Amino acid sequence: MYNGRFAQPLVSGPVMLLVDLSRLRGPVEHVDRTFQPAAFDPPDEFFRVAAPVELTMAVSKTGSDVFDVTGRVRTRLGLACSRCLEPFEIAVDAPFELRYLPQTQNAGEGEREIADEDLATAYYREGMLDLSDLLKEQFQLALPMKPLCSESCRGLCPECGANLNRAACGHAPRWEDLRLAGLKALLNREREN
């Protein structure tokens, strides 16, 4: 069940922000919303929303069935460090500009080169803009390629698994390239002689 122009479902579960495009009154509608982190449960496999999500956007009709959506998403995301596996948070302040077309125009054209405007095009269904996908996309775009709690993170000991940021475990770092094993054997024999 939905109510109002900017309606939210009355059931719990993943966040859904629906904008009823047929109810836009003027050339531009402004939306300012804050969502609590619990609205994004269960968390994504790569991140969790760690702070309230502030969404500010403007929806403008630019054609008979074309809408431009510009705005900004602000929050904090919780990640696991790729070296030491400890949790940490990053700030997200992501501006966006998207053009929404009806889903019926997303028929697929076979193989073709992606143009810049294709990267900023999204689709709406049944006259409703579901911005939960937009929020998730902005979160994913904000993720670093290799999440690190700090640039100087020392990671885990490959022998015992101890977090080297907390204490030294006594194991010397060892890494052997199997391709060089023959040369190492020659060096060892030479030292023995």
How would you describe this structure to a colleague?
The protein has three helices and nine strands. The protein has 193 residues and is α+β, with helices and mostly antiparallel strands. The strands form two sheets. Strands 3, 4, 5, 6, 7 and 8 form a six-stranded mixed beta sheet that branches. The radius of gyration is 25 Å and the shape is elongated.
Short overview:
The protein has 193 residues and is α+β, with helices and mostly antiparallel strands.
Number of E-type strands: 9
Return residue spans where pLDDT drops below 50 for at least 5 consecutive residues. 1-13
Radius of gyration: 25 Å
Share of helix, binned: 10-25%
Number of helices: 3
The coarse silhouette is elongated
The secondary structure category is: alpha+beta
List the main descriptive attributes of the protein structure presented here:
9 strands; 3 helices; single chain; 14% helix; 3-stranded antiparallel beta sheet; 193 residues; alpha+beta
Q: Topology of this structure?
A:
Layout: E1 6-7, E2 18-20, E3 28-35, E4 48-49, E5 53-61, E6 67-80, E7 87-102, H1 116-119, E8 121-124, E9 128-130, H2 132-142, H3 181-192
Parallel strand pairs: 7-8
Antiparallel strand pairs: 1-2, 2-9, 3-5, 4-6, 5-6, 6-7
